[in-house]
């Protein structure tokens, strides 16, 4: 893939990095990321995925913008309140970079439609707010052979994990949480609060890891760090990394 001159200029600061280079930027431009949730995590992650020039972005969210979202969901403004998040996120991308291809999905991702939404993606970045969706995403990723970044945030702590349960020896998200199921909102920020910048740090870190995964085999950013969970502490501040073991009895990936 050859980038036109205006794209070369736009991504010049990437291209001069030996870890990315022209070939890496071309890879990003040809990549497709499915972003599940464009809220607290998905909003800043989307900004940096679009900024990185990821060529196709599928935006999945069935929620509407609320005034309380604006403290951390930085792609929205007061005029976005009461509008569908996926639609407003698509508008933001188009205004930011008209050269990117976007597709919005305003339906809730479930076990029934997950495969249809995810099929053909190079990577899924999941920042949704409930275990039922997270597990449906994980199972579909394993079945389709699509890598998954799963991110979560609350109060002053964030988590970003890289999962490739379709690969031998590597854990899936279900290995990490078991068969947990919660049909209700598992994001308790309405009750417990959340520092807006913490959501930004977690989303930006997830976008960084996404670039790392997408450049595997092309750039020099290093291995994709499968089965590793990064825990971000905003109060310390600190970052620590844990390894997630593959569960040989996992109902999601035990056959891989």
3D structure, described in words:
This protein has 256 residues and is α/β, with parallel strands linked by helices. The chain has one domain (5-243): Rossmann fold. The protein is 34% helix and 18% strand. The chain is built from 10 helices and 8 strands. Helix 4 (42-51) packs across helix 10 (196-214). The longest helix is centred in the last third of the chain and has 19 residues, at 196-214. The protein is globular, with a radius of gyration of 17 Å. The model has no long low-confidence stretch (mean pLDDT 94).
Topology record:
Layout: H1 5-10, H2 12-15, H3 21-29, E1 32-36, H4 42-51, E2 56-60, H5 85-96, E3 101-105, H6 114-118, E4 123-126, H7 131-144, E5 148-154, E6 157-163, H8 173-177, H9 189-192, H10 196-214, E7 228-233, E8 238-243
Parallel strand pairs: 1-2, 1-4, 2-3, 4-5
Antiparallel strand pairs: 5-6, 6-7, 7-8
């Amino acid at each position: 893939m050859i980038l036109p001159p205006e794209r070369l200029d736009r991504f010049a600061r990437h291209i001069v990095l030996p870890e990315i280079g022209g070939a890496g930027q071309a890879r990003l431009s040809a990549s497709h990321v499915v972003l599940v949730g464009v809220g607290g995590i998905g909003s800043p992650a989307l900004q940096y995925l679009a900024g990185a020039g990821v060529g196709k972005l599928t935006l999945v969210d069935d929620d509407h913008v609320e005034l309380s979202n604006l403290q951390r969901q930085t792609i929205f403004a007061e005029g976005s309140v009461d509008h569908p998040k996926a639609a407003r996120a698509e508008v933001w991308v188009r205004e930011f970079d008209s050269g990117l291809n976007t597709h919005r999905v305003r339906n809730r991702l479930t076990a029934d439609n997950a495969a249809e939404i995810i099929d053909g993606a190079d990577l899924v970045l999941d920042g949704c707010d409930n275990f039922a969706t997270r597990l449906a995403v994980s199972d579909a990723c394993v079945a389709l052979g699509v890598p998954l970044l799963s991110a979560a945030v609350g109060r002053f702590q964030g988590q970003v994990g890289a999962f490739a349960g379709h690969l031998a020896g590597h854990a899936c998200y279900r290995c990490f949480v078991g068969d947990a199921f919660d049909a209700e909102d598992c994001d308790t920020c309405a009750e417990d609060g959340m520092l807006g910048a913490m959501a930004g740090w977690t989303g930006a870190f997830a976008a960084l890891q996404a670039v790392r995964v997408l450049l595997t085999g092309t750039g020099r950013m290093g291995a994709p760090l499968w089965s590793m969970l990064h825990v971000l502490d905003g109060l310390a501040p600190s970052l620590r990394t844990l390894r997630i073991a593959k569960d040989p009895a996992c109902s999601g990936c035990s056959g891989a």
